[in-house]
Structures
1.
Amino acid sequence: MLIKILLISLLLVIIISLFKALPVMLKGQSSRPMSHYLGWRIGLSVLAFTLIVIALLTGVITPNPRPY
């Protein structure tokens, strides 16, 4: 259950980072460059992916065996 809460919170932070980058992309001027927000999103996405892989390998979460 803790892994699922952690993954959901990571996904929410990724979405918040996406919306923080939106004004920078639209207006083009900010105190921080666009690459700052992109780097955070990529880093958090890699962290979420590695947590999912680790949880699958350790058996904390199980994949759906039949998707239909």
2.
Amino acid sequence: MWALFEPIHAVAYFAPEAEAAYEEVGLRGYFAGRAAPLGPVGPEPVVAAFFTFAPAMVARARKPGRRARGLRGRS
């Protein structure tokens, strides 16, 4: 099933249109876009949510305190 659905799933995060939409609201990169629903949190909850990724990589990609324009405090 993964092989069937992953290409469809991945396009939501890696397509140029998705990246442009993230940047339009002040988010940069895969982790910022995926973690935006968590709100303005530090790296710990994001690292926990993305447990299959290396924690240091996630923490570097998600800077605490970064706020997205137009999202009322979400980062």
3.
Amino acid sequence: MTDRAPQHGPRTGHRDLTQGPILSTLLIFSAPTLASNILQALNGSVNSIWVGRLLGDSALAATANANVVMFLLFAAVFGFGMAATVKVGQAFGAGNTDAARRTFGTAIGLCVGLSLVLGPLGWIFTPHLLTLMRTPPEIFAFALTYLRLIFVAMPASTITVIVGMGLRGAGDAQTSLRFMVVSVVLDIALNPLLIAGFGPIPPLGIAGSALATAIASYAAMLGLVVYVYARNLPLRLRGRELAYLIPHAAELRYILIKGLPMGAQMLMISASGLIMIGLVNQEGAMLSAAYGASLQVWTYLQMPAMAISAALSAMAAQTIGAGLASRLGKITRAGLILNISITGTLTLLLLAFDRPVLTLFLGPTSPAVDAARHIQFLASWSYVLFGMTIVLFGTMRAGGVVLVPIAVLGIAMYPVRLGFYAAAYPALGPDALWLSFPVGSAAAVLMATIAYRRPGWRQKARVVDQDECSEESQADGDCSGRMAPAL
């Protein structure tokens, strides 16, 4: 293997998305992203089931509080990782392996440096964060222990994510998926053993769940790094290349300029989630637990739309580049049809079988089950509207539109959603919280539709790299019950 490939040549794995049937192509092309994101979410869901069933509602509510905080902190890291993925892909497309390694080294150095700063700060300021979130006294101790230990895992999680995103930019999505499986299996297996104790292992309670996540994160990180060097994969850094870990000015500028908007959008969305859980916490531990279980379910409701949007962005980018304007509207319609069909079906199934699903997290005798069912009935269908919004954004991003999605989501999640809550709470009580989700989603899809139908962006559409469009689509996801954004 040579360190520097020829300077020109097609990127491996390229697929022509401008030909053939649109609907089936979009469905097939979005399937791997959906599978990866489901696997990522499954880890958090199974752990929540262990915590809820073994430790009770208060412990489950504590993990929901912690996940929203961690999603907020990971948002910036993911924004930078997305930007690096795009540039790594472009460098490999041009046959310039050294440039790809330089970008990758800068991304690793920047994001690991951030995590090494944020981890200790998080440990120190966790009590203050939980106080700001109005965490109920019944769950405060659980949340404090859990979140502090999760901060310990942050450097390992960051390295694993950035290496995986870099490999994906190089056209290798399988390696990171393998070690995601390792992390998930270890985490799921260790959770009950460390929570309840086994043999010489004492019962550690909520600390055991967080410790299981930390152990799985470091094991996956070490395994991934060893694998990259053992297989001599293109992004491994050796000798003088280790200096690339010190962020290079030009590379850093690109990653910051491209990554900050994506990171800012995720920060904006996750900050909204932080505010919402603070408002829920005011209603007491029982509703906090019900909301925590609902968040886990909502994670899956939004994933089909996110995968469809990412695939649609890549298709639309190629279509704009090929000058096939008439095909663009058909791609968007196909995305909307898929979203309504898949997300709508999942929502109906959830509402039909909500009790057994929620009982997995809360236990059959928990009073929070009925409260969670009520939340699901009022709010779950908002994710159909949410999906329509990000499908429209997926097409627009392919034409270079980046500010409209941020503005629309910002308006929908703050003045609309929080404004509705403030105005309706005196009359509706906690129901104002759950109804604010569909109200905000309806406002978002209305604004997105108006923006999409305006002809200006089509006339000014510029060709955007299809991988950049796909990465930006992942910035739309609501934090729901996840600890980190979708990959």
4.
Amino acid sequence: MKKELRIRNDFFDQDCINWILSQPNGSLYILLYLHLCCLSLHDNEAAIPYNVQWIQAHTPVSIDDNVIDSGIQLLIKAGLLEVNDASLVLPSSNSVVVRRAI
């Protein structure tokens, strides 16, 4: 089954996105977030291992470990990611992106 990720047309108008973009490395954090959203499509439960090295190995852009770690913390603080056991999960209540089967 194919899955798709839809980004709302007002993605960059969301308060949480603008807040992240205003932070140092904000654009890298948004790129990381979008890539994590895409990675979540590969798993039926949309969970991603909370492992900086694993994320770095599966991210096509070279992002420093510290940037990934601080980005994840910021995305959690913004409510775009949640930690569940040893995994990162995109909240189902997240209205910024929508994952669905096609």
